[in-house]
Amino acid sequence: MGFKRYLAKRAITMFGVLMATLLITIALVGSNMDSILKQSVSLEVRQQVTNDKTLIASFKDPEQLNKYVQGQIKQREMSLGLDQPWYVPSRLGLAMYKILTLDFGHAKFLTSDTGSSDVKDIILEKLPRTVLLFTTATIVISLLGIFLGSVAANKVNSMLDRITSGFAIVSSSFPVWWVGLIMIFLFAFLYPIFPARATPETSPSEPGYLASLLYHMALPLITLVLIGFGSWAYLVRNFLVGILQEDFIFAKRAAGISARKILFKHALKNATPPIMTVMALSLSGSLGGAIITEAVFDWPGMGRLYYEAISVLDLPVIIGATYVLTAFFLASIFLADVLYSYFDPRVRRQ
Amino acid sequence: MTLTSKEVWREFASNKMAVAGFAILSVLISMSVIAFATIPAETFRQWNDPSSWLEFPKSAQPSWVNLFLSEKIPEHSILAPHEYMKKSGNASVITDVFVSDYEYDSFPSDFIYHYSARYQGSPLLQLSVVRPDGLSAVLYSSSLPLYQTREVFDGLAFSADDAVKTNILSSMKFGFDYGFLPSQDLVFSELGQERVLKGTYVFKVTVYDPSGNLSLDKSQFVLGGKVYGLLGTDELRRDLAVGVLWGTPLALFIGVTVSLGSVVIGLVYGVYAGFKGRATDEVMMRFNDIIYAMPALPLLIILAVTIGNSIFLIVGFLVIFGWVGIAKVSRSMAMQIKTLQYIEASKLMGQKDFRIILKHVLPQLLPYAFASIAISVPAAITTEAGLSFLGLGDTSFPTWGQILHDASSYGAAERGMWWWILPPGIMIAITGLAFVFIGNAMDAVANPKLRR
């Protein structure tokens, strides 16, 4: 199988997953969505009628008025397609098409910082902050992990190696959000260095916003790095230990190349494909976990948006955010696949 | 697998991680047994019912913090009475005496006398105190409501009652400005300066009943403190030791059920796909790929919000996302085993696929299955805790995630209430570690190649 064909196959699978997730989301919230829409339609119509004094005056008795209102509501529902259940193919197709083209509609309660209730605006405002926090964290974690893992792999069973492995196992058993609570306790209460809530007080239009945002990002970033780098180092160490036993490394040693050069140049280069894959996968994993992490720190990104949308049941936002989160999640998995098959051609020829 | 069970056990016993894992697990199991044995199951329903925690202090630290402090914080205590009864003619007098050795360096947060009297008519209730310096004062005095027939009256006398302060001031003269001090401070203070007078305090409750048909069904004196029990209490006065203890069987139940369900489903699915091969395999693995690539947490949240958040439903949801990885691995293992000669031999002998899978393929995968059961427990526990932490869990059970959710919504971290945050999280991590240790050890026994 050629590289392109492999990629095409993976891309089709990913698209299928995206559609399936979207379908499940719509199936789960569809009936709720319809009842909410119907309520808002009837509210809208009633308001319109009560505001129109001349129209009310033209009715003789309340029964007639009521009949008119009911008729109007029915008409409006027909035009929106609400007379049919959400699972009718035409409605389902339309809903999917709208979401695919990033038309998420308007939020019920939530608004963006600038006051827009368009779901697309809200998401576009929150997404960069999530990307900022989690990509920074992933980069710091992987750099630290690669360095520490290489050093540990160089001295297997040394003190440093044992400490790294132990720390990896222990640190990965704590939930990130719990460590977040502890960090808030330590650095916002006991030694008040960082703010407990990570939402900057300055508004985005002011000049000091970026600095404030970065300052508020410190605590979540430190927490993510603290919890993440141990298992990274452990992983890199395991990859490298395997590679350092290969024949070509022995050959290089025999040729008199320094141990340092072998480790950082030759061994690490061969460990690149799995490392790249894990990096992309851990990015996708942390995006999924962003909901809880951001809720703990009150970081104003996609995760907190999702959490807020769930707590007030703002369905258009839930659907939109699920779609975008899933798309990002899948994109990073896809990236992992591409990187792996690029670096390791054996994968393509299954 | 030609290892006998004896050899496997020897292998385990020599593995430090396995021993540590099993040691932690047995502690957790005995904690669960203690929880079942000592704490009535009704505590479940009481956990979210504020009225059942009234006698507990609010946001009290664990009582052992006093060991590390030079200034002792008063311990919350619920005093039981020494009861004396006297009958003179027709009238009866009940005297309940409560003794407290007060050796703390700060004042109590409050005191409450809680009683439930059975009488006819209208008896008189009086609460008085005798202090270590010999001074005494009547704190509270009230006649109980008039009953024509013999009935039960449930009543409370609070230190916050204005009359209590007036009563103290009428019988004691303080040499400092007592204007805004609450009555419990005055009761426990030296006369000359505002400092705790240490020693033995005797609180005396006397009930005079002229009709003589009196009994006290309940009589307890709550001396409100700022430290309580092994793990302290939360903002809603709940005893955290009870919550953390009850959380143990819940976490074990969730973790083990989810991982067992996931492994069984994944194993059967994967082995079937791998063994059948061709189109069946292709279709089954595509479906597997789709679930594998779905973002679990957002979907779990939507499921919990739209379908329901009972603890059993959540276990089911976690299984939905838990089996896919195991199915992938067991499929590839089954594909390898399939090519072995004895499988082909039994195929030639006309064995049915079902029997071959059951008798020859599945047993080979059992060591892997046991290891993955152990290894997937921690993820199940943390995911459930995460859902509960977001407020989407089953609120009728005090799981660790639920306790942490309450802690976070009352801002425990920002307010420095470490005793509310630390124990549940540490329990989550310890439980996870135990299963990781056991799983790794099982893996090492099952795959000797990994040992190095």
Identify the notable features of this structure and list them briefly.
A: mainly alpha, 78% helix, elongated, B: 452 residues, alpha+beta, five-stranded antiparallel beta sheet, 13 helices, 50% helix
Describe this structure in words.
- The complex is a heterodimer of chains A (350) and B (452).
- With 350 residues, chain A is mainly α.
- In chain A, helix 11 runs antiparallel to helix 13.
- Chain A starts with a helix and ends in a 7-residue tail after the last helix.
- Chain B is built from 13 helices and nine strands.
- In chain B, a hairpin with a 2-residue loop joins strand 2 and strand 3.
- Chain B is elongated and about 100 Å long.
- Chain B starts with a helix and ends in a 6-residue tail after the last helix.
- At the A-B interface, helix 1, helix 6, helix 7, helix 11 and helix 12 of A face helix 7, helix 8, helix 11, helix 12 and helix 13 of B.
Gist?
The complex is a heterodimer of chains A (350) and B (452). With 350 residues, chain A is mostly helical. Chain A has helices at 3-51, 53-57, 62-80, 89-100, 119-154, 159-173, 176-190, 209-244, 247-254, 259-270, 272-297, 302-312, 315-343.
